[in-house]
């Protein structure tokens, strides 16, 4: 982790030097940076969904008795799972909302570029990257929603309705915009 921190600070210093020298980077650089941020967030979200699945499977294995070889990612203590699962799910929902915001921001940029194209500005009409982002986010959304519904008994009567409301808001805002 120390090595990562050192490399990160060096790269940030280099980026600052480049920005100072050139005062701006090409639009393609910013777009690529945004794509990488989204891809990283999506991968982190997919990892969270797999962690939730593993934690749930581990909890079922503990309740059922001896586990087959799949339960390798069990939490160390049987009492830890009920507290960890809601926390993990809330973190995943938060990351889902962040990814949704990134997509909505990109959609707004695309809409603005489309408006400026009416005045003669250069406009990239390709919607494939936006569509791919939306589809991959919705796919992870449904996986996470499925895990939450499967763990509904463990979440309790007060947390589940709030989570369902947040899920509905994510999906409706993506569809509406």
TrEMBL record:
<dbReference type="InterPro" id="IPR013800">
    <property type="entry name" value="STAT_TF_alpha"/>
</dbReference>
<dbReference type="GO" id="GO:0007165">
    <property type="term" value="P:signal transduction"/>
</dbReference>
<dbReference type="InterPro" id="IPR001217">
    <property type="entry name" value="STAT"/>
</dbReference>
<dbReference type="Pfam" id="PF01017">
    <property type="entry name" value="STAT_alpha"/>
</dbReference>
<feature type="domain" description="STAT transcription factor all-alpha">
    <location>
        <begin position="91"/>
        <end position="151"/>
    </location>
</feature>
<dbReference type="InterPro" id="IPR015988">
    <property type="entry name" value="STAT_TF_CC"/>
</dbReference>
<dbReference type="GO" id="GO:0003700">
    <property type="term" value="F:DNA-binding transcription factor activity"/>
</dbReference>
<keyword id="KW-0727">SH2 domain</keyword>
<protein>
    <submittedName>
        <fullName>STAT6 protein</fullName>
    </submittedName>
</protein>
């Amino acid at each position: 982790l120390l090595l990562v921190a050192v490399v990160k600070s060096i790269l940030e210093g280099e980026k600052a030097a480049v920005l100072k020298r050139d005062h701006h980077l090409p639009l393609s650089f910013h777009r690529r940076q945004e794509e990488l941020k989204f891809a990283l967030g999506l991968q982190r979200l997919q990892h969270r969904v797999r962690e939730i699945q593993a934690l749930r499977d581990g909890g079922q294995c503990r309740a059922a008795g001896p586990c087959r070889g799949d339960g390798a990612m069990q939490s160390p203590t049987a009492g830890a799972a009920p507290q960890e699962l809601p926390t993990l799910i809330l973190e995943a929902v938060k990351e889902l909302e962040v990814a949704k915001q990134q997509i909505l921001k990109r959609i707004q940029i695309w809409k603005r570029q489309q408006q400026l194209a009416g005045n003669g500005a250069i406009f990239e009409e390709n919607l494939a990257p936006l569509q791919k982002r939306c589809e991959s986010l919705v796919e992870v959304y449904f996986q996470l929603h499925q895990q939450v519904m499967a763990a509904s008994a463990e979440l309790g009567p007060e947390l589940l309705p709030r989570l369902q409301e947040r899920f509905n808001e994510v999906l409706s805002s993506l569809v509406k915009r």
